[in-house]
Structures are given as C-alpha cells and as structure tokens.
Amino acid sequence: MKVKIKKLSDNAIVPKYTRSDDAGMDLTAISVNVTEDFVEYKTGISIELPRGHVGLVFPRSSISKKDLSMSNSVAVFDVGYTGEYIIRFQKLGENIYKVGERIAQLIILPYPKVEFEEVENLSDSERKSGAFGSSGN
Known about the structure:
Elements: E1 4-7, E2 25-28, E3 31-34, E4 38-48, E5 53-59, E6 68-70, E7 75-77, E8 84-91, E9 102-110
Antiparallel strand pairs: 1-4, 2-9, 3-4, 4-8, 5-7, 5-9, 6-8
C-alpha cells in the first residue's frame, strides 16, 4: 500500500520498518519541547492516510528505559488530520529521548465502519458483565 507523506523539515526522517516482519514503523524526533509536566517531540512529517485507514502511534519498547509515559497511550490519527505528527509524553524524570532518537512506532490499519443496533438484551456469554480481573488473575 502506498501512503503519501510530506517532510515538513529537511531533518525529518520518513518512518520505516527496522526489520522486514515488523508491524510498526519507527518515528524519529527532530525537535523536543520539555516542560515541567510533559515532553513533546516533533517528527517533521505529515501523512495523508488512505480512506478507511487509521494511523495508530504506540510507545516503543525502549520506553521502559526512559522516564516517560505516553500521554494518551495510543495516539489515534484519523484520515482527516494532515498536520504534523507530534508525540507527547508525560515527564516522570530526567531520562528522556534525545533529538534524533526513535521515539514511537506507527501502525496504519484498515478499520470497519460500525453501525450500532440498540437492543433490549445482549447474547449470553461466559464472562457476562464481569469487569476488572474477571477472567482470572
């Protein structure tokens, strides 16, 4: 699938897969804005997603070595958004990503169009309405 991408800066790096079987493409920081509460990275890219697709941005596994937590856990980029991909983290300490490092990963997926049907009762299930921890430990 071909997806249109625009570099907003000469420093921007087009996302790519590190390994041929990877699901996510790495996003690289070209600038950083650090405040007392958050760290915001610009990627210098904007993307025109194909209709029927969504861009999902996840933290990389290397986040476990940093004093950061991705503010919205998974960022959702809809088709209509064609601005710069900016990734924001909560600042938990001083060990953060530096400009030039891979900061997150992008996955582009198709999604179904859902139409809800309001009903009086739902089908029976083994779990029923059990919530947190109801499926075991």
